[in-house]
Amino acid sequence: MANKLTQSEIDGVAYRRAKLWQIVLFAANAFCGSSVFMLMNQSSYAASVGFGVSTALIGVILTATRILDALTDTMFAFVYDRVNTKYGKLRILIMSGFFIEAVSLFLMFDLLVGKGLGTPAFIVLYIFYILGYTIINMTIQTIPPMLSNDPRQRPTIGVWMTAFNYVIPTVLGLVFNIVILRLAGGTFNALYLKMTVRFVLILAFFGNVLCCVGISDIDKVENFRGTKRVEPLKIKDMIEVVRHNKPLQSYIAAASSDKLAQVTATQSIITTMLYGIVIGNMAMSTILGMVAMIPAILFAAGGAKYAGRYGSKKAIVDWTIICMVLSGALSVFFLVIDPKTVARPGLTMIIYVVLNFALNGCKMCVTTANASFMADTIDYELDRSGRYAPAVVSGVYSLIDKIISSFGAVIATAAVATIGYTKTVPQPGDPTTTGVLTITLCAMYGLPIVGWFITLVAMKDCKLTKEEMVKVQKRIADKKEEAKNEFLEAELHRADI
């Protein structure tokens, strides 16, 4: 029986592949990212309990720092481009960022809590946290395209990242609310903050060390070179990338519109309206969220296999269409039944759960395909301009994404205001009026359909198909070989002189 051909043999390209243990250890960076994210969900308690910041001012600070976060993501590209040591750059950036992040979090949640330093101190610490977080997060985003350029393996990296990012927050939520909160006396006090931050920093350090071990083989100077000699990154270079990298433009339009719709749909007031008012069982939201974790990961694995076989672009388009169909079906479903029956065991509950799991799973497939498509746009830029610029691509996307998605809360609150919730917010048990049902369905399913439609339009003229990516990888390999020969020839001439 003949051996199965590898993707390299099929495409005629010497693909770079990662070992499974490298992918798993890289994905373990979620021990840092997810645990710090969960900790920062408690930042309002740190501001109030530890620094005496008023509730109203906390919201202003968090909104303003989100804008700063978007700007630092973009500016980080200049740092990334200039950090080049004989030990590489990835591990140095990750651990440097973690040091800044860890110090600021330890001061914010532990050492300076209750010292009466007030709002200015909290703001300064939060800014330093953002700087450290930016260095780690943006560096992590540049790693997947370096681990592998094999079209079959690339989506698999996203699956492992998804699995870690699903499981860790779920487990941490239980640890925070059941174990640590109980040890702290059942209230979100100074002791709770101190115990939580120490636990998180230990876990985050562990995750970063595992990640650094996993990427040690690729963190080498030669892996950050382009296909030709280029000058240090300038602002005009970033603008040039956005203007001429058409697949990146498609990706930004598609992913940002999806993100805005999803952020709006997952706002707590929208979730409350669906489960607490329309369905009439708020606990169902939490239960489904927990149970949906395993199906979502299985869907992600299937989506990765599909993307590896047919290409990232086709996977995005196909799964997006399915998401639109399922969202439309759920909208019609709620219009033709009595929504209250969904909360009771029976046929309508089964239909809703199946459709809900299927929709969430297909969304996960889109997310997996998006992750591999971003890696494709980075390789496309390397082929187009000769510059290896992963931080530019991810930084520009992150800037636009965070600015656009920040409007999610505004859209949600404006929507509920149109049906009378101007001075109060929706509460479980409120009457299910026609307005409540309409706004709930529009925000939960209608707006995402609009976002997915924009995705289809953006991807229509994108030429970065699976077949084109094979050509891109061949051209990159040829250009790198040519650049290597030119370098060796130059060294020989220098030796003769």
Question: Could you give the topology of this structure?
Answer:
Blueprint lengths: L6 H5 L8 H8 L2 H11 L2 H9 L3 H28 L7 H22 L6 H24 L2 H4 L6 H30 L6 H25 L20 H10 L1 H20 L2 H12 L3 H9 L1 H18 L1 H25 L10 H39 L4 H16 L2 H10 L16 H27 L5 H31 L1
Helix pairs in contact: 2-9, 2-10, 3-9, 3-10, 5-7, 5-18, 6-7, 6-10, 9-15, 9-17, 12-17, 12-18, 12-19, 12-20, 13-20, 15-16, 15-17, 16-17, 16-20, 17-21
Walk me through the structure:
It is a single chain. This protein is an all-alpha fold. The chain folds into 2 domains: 18-223, MFS general substrate transporter like domains (Growth Hormone, Chain: A, Up-down Bundle); 231-491, Growth Hormone, Chain: A. The protein has 21 helices and no strands. It has helices at residues 7-11, 20-27, 30-40, 43-51, 55-82, 90-111, 118-141, 144-147, 154-183, 190-214, 235-244, 246-265, 268-279, 283-291, 293-310, 312-336, 347-385, 390-405, 408-417, 434-460, 466-496. Helix 6 (90-111) packs antiparallel against helix 10 and helix 9 (154-183) packs across helix 17. It is globular and about 75 Å long. It starts with 6 loop residues before the first helix and ends with a helix. The mean pLDDT is 85.
